[in-house]
Amino acid sequence: VTMKLVAAAFGLSLLVAGLWVGLSLTSNSDGGGKPGGGGGGGGGRGCFLPPLPKEDVSLCRNLEVFYMEMGNISCKVVPKCNQYRRKIMTWQSPIVKFHGALDGAQYLLVMVDPDAPSRSNPRMKYWRHWVVSNITGTDMKSGSIRGNIITDYQPPTPPPTTGLHRYQFFVYLQGDRDISIPESENENRGAWKLDKFLQQYGLQDPDTSTQFMTQFDGELPPDFGSINDGQDQPDQR
After folding, report:
1. CA count, 13 A, side-chain hemisphere, 233
2. One Pfam family, short name please (predicted)?
């Protein structure tokens, strides 16, 4: 009887060990969060993207923003784990999807930081990170942001000691408008008069929008001094 009990216990321990290994492999394989992928729960095991604070969810309107490794970070806070806050400062432009886009229509995409150089002192607000016009409805649905690049994409680069920054995305139905920004204005991204720009082209409420938040995390990218959100730029209030 004793030998039978020992054998049964040994068999049970092997079964538990096998289940643990299987679960571990499944967890590691599911966490990649590749661009255009699923839920955006973070790349590494135990690394999660927390939702935005309740006071910051008003812009969350069915627009998806995918970055490599993290997946969809719409209405999320970029976490410190896996060095995501450092990586996002160097990644290329995200995939931006609007599933409600109309076939045959043209759209304008705008990405801005209203918290430059900080949320408590936004004297350079609406730092212009990306502006693209003439995006077809088909491309807007697939997340392929092709069109007339008015302002080249600049990744989020919140300056040190300025806390969390909001990075906001707006998509407007462009119609047949021919949209541009004067070269002299386009050279300097800070203190952009977004409201004036929208009024100039008769653009009112966006068709959709979203935002995410991130902050500086202790390591500067090589060209940080020339691209950070308002810290080293002249005051244009």
Report:
1. 25
2. PBP
- The answer to whether 164 touches 78, Cβ cutoff 8 Å, is no
Q: Give the pTM.
A: 0.78
Measure Cα distances from 66 to 71, 188, 195 in Å.
5, 27, 27
Distance CA 77, CA 171 (A): 21
Quote the tokens at residue 1.
């009887």
Secondary structure of residue 120 in the 3-state scheme? coil
**Residue ranges of the chain with per-residue pLDDT less than 50:** 1-12, 14-40, 226, 233-237
Count of CB atoms within 10 A of residue 93's CB? 16
pLDDT at res. 186: 86
Q: Which amino acid appears at position 219 of this protein?
A: E
Residue among 7, 94, 83 nearest 47 (CA): 83
Rounded to whole angstroms, the Cα distance separating 197 from 190 reads 14
Question: CB-based contacts of 91: which residues, under 8 Å, 6+ apart?
Answer: 67, 68, 155
> How many residues are listed for the chain in this entry?
237
